[in-house]
Amino acid sequence: MTPETGGFLLALLQIIWINILLSGDNAVVIALACRGLPPEMRKWGVIFGAGVAVAMRIGFTIVVATLMGLPYLKIIGGLLLFWIAIQLLHDNDDEADIAATHSIWSAVRTIAIADLVMSLDNVVAIAAAAKGSWTLIIIGLAMSVPLIVFGATLIITILERYPVLVWAGAALLGWVAGNLIAEDPLVHSAKLGLPDEVFSSGAGLLGAAIVVLAGWLLRRRKKEEEEDPASSG
Question: Which pLDDT belongs to residue 205?
Answer without folding.
Answer: 94
